[in-house]
Design goal:
The chain has one domain: 3-Layer(aba) Sandwich (Rossmann fold), CATH 3.40.50. It is globular, with a radius of gyration of 18 Å. 38% of the residues lie in helices and 16% in strands. Strands 3-2-1-4-5-7-6-8 form an eight-stranded mixed β-sheet, sandwiched between helices. Strand 2, helix 3 and strand 3 form a beta-alpha-beta unit. Helix 3 runs antiparallel to helix 9 and helix 5 crosses helix 7. The protein has eleven helices and eight strands. 44% of the residues are buried. It is an alpha/beta fold.
């Protein structure tokens, strides 16, 4: 049995980005640990979900534990940082926000969790946080530094395959399928922080065999994803095409034969 640790910024990030990888590892008999930097207290709750006086951070903490159980995770740790909210907001400029935390201090906090485990693979985000979210960028900084401190060489950066999304949207448009409000093909020239060109992505994980659990993990985050959320509202075939593969950039040397990294992650070239 090997150990996979997935480091995320907020509850629900794991469901969208690495849920399939986590479920595949758990199904193969490996130990799966989820570490979340914040409780996501500055997210935007679905209308009517929270009870009167219920705090969003408390609800999202319960939701991430429920999602982790669906995925077969063995341990969930929250580092206790404050959600930064979106870029250029008052919450993102607060000195106590996660995005403004001292990287080495935060990395030592994560490394303390890693020291409790015999970690074979660590996942973080790419250097622009998938789409420029300040907490996601901080996960990259803190996670890669913690890997250095803990001596972990198999580090995989979860990313968005920009070209895959553009191709998928083009297929939907060609079929005359109406896209949800606000969803359109990203303008690569004008949205440099959105996703990663496919040519720069090194590995993928086929998560179709566990896609029902990935969807269930997303549904566990009821405060963030109503049934009409554009991802959950996709027809099954479209959901499979969009979410059936998780994409990564390898940070370290090629995985050793027989290692957890070699078992989970498939080179795309």
């Amino acid at each position: 049995m090997a150990t996979l640790v997935c480091f995320h910024a907020h509850p629900d990030d794991e469901a969208i980005a690495t849920a399939g990888t986590m479920a595949c590892a758990a199904d193969a008999g490996h130990r799966v640990v989820l570490v979340v930097a914040t409780r996501g207290e500055h997210g935007e709750p679905v209308a009517g979900v929270l009870a009167e006086g219920e705090q969003l951070g408390v609800r999202r903490t319960a939701e991430v534990h429920a999602a982790a159980e669906v995925l077969g995770a063995h341990r969930v740790e929250l580092l206790g940082y404050v959600d930064s909210g979106m870029v250029d907001t008052a919450t993102s400029t607060a000195p106590w926000a996660f995005c403004n935390a001292d990287v080495d201090a935060a990395a030592r906090r994560l490394a303390a969790v890693l020291a409790d485990e015999t970690v074979d693979v660590l996942t973080v985000y790419d250097d622009h946080g998938g789409y420029g979210h300040p907490d996601h960028i901080q996960v990259h900084r803190v996670g890669t530094r913690a890997a250095e401190l803990a001596g972990i060489t198999d580090v995989f950066q979860s990313t968005i395959n920009r070209d895959h999304i553009i191709r998928g949207i083009a297929r939907l448009q060609a079929q005359g399928i109406e896209l949800p409000n606000g969803v359109e093909a990203p303008d690569i020239e004008n949205a440099p922080d959105f996703g990663t060109p496919e040519a720069a992505i090194t590995h993928k994980v086929d998560v179709e065999p566990v896609l029902d659990r990935k969807r269930a993990a997303m549904q566990a985050h009821r405060s963030q994803m109503a049934d009409d959320h554009f991802l959950l509202a996709m027809p099954p075939a479209a959901f499979t095409a969009a979410m059936g593969t998780e994409w990564y950039i390898a940070s370290g040397p090629p995985p050793a034969p027989g290692s957890l990294a070699a078992e989970l992650f498939t080179p795309i070239r």
